Amino acid sequence: THTYKHIHTPMCRHSHTHTHNMSCIQRKLLALGIPTADSFSHTDEGSFRNLIVTLEDTIIRKYKMEDRVGLRAIESEEWNSVFNQYLLSLQCPFAGRDWQSSSSARLIVLDWVLGRAVALEYSDNADNFNSESSKQRGKAAVTIDVESMEVNDQIKQIAAMFNLPDVDDINLLWRAISSVVLKKFSPQAITSASAAKKEITDRHTLEEMPLGFEVKDKRIKDAVKVLRLLHVAELRELQTQINCLIVSAQDITADPHTDSRLGRVGK
Questions:
Q1: CA 202 remoteness from chain centre
Q2: N or C: which end of the chain has fewer CB within 10 A?
Q3: Rounded Cα–Cα distance for residues 49 and 164 (Å)
């Protein structure tokens, strides 16, 4: 019985890359349905040779049946040279690597051969894979019922986090949550909030805000104040957008020497 040598794998500073390559190889073995994927060791000569023969016989099929005799003779002393010739026939860019004695080089070569096998397996069964993928996506799309009580409860929990009032109209609640997220958690809002913390600002309570006309009912009076403040905020946002539009128009139509950053026209 021929005894295969076990390649020694020294510990080195590239152990992280080594581990990454091994995980890639195991994923490809699993994708190809290789039964020994979990226990496969690339340093075991017998396992390595058997895997190459299996890939050629079942997936790659580069050689005709009668031309695979040398590759199948895994106990032959000529197998290494046969495998080198096989790599050349596949146009493997790593065919010249010293894969026989170098564990890292063997990993690279094996990873390339497995990648070739995965590509061929996909091309042979592309229609099946794509249809199955579409089915899975379709299943995922219908597993969530946006009108279910569970989803509604989650929406109400999010609204409570933002201190929004509890209303029965879920669509209205969705729009309110979206508005809060856009106004408070956009990159611009976060930048403005950070800058505002560094500034000294006079803050007033709702009680101190002037209304402009007399209302006897305090609740109605406070509600009107809030509406006026929201209206002012919208006007400020509109004015900012108008200013940006004016600057953009000036960049196109104004004097060629206009520099909006300097706030002047011409030299």
A1: 44
A2: N
A3: 66
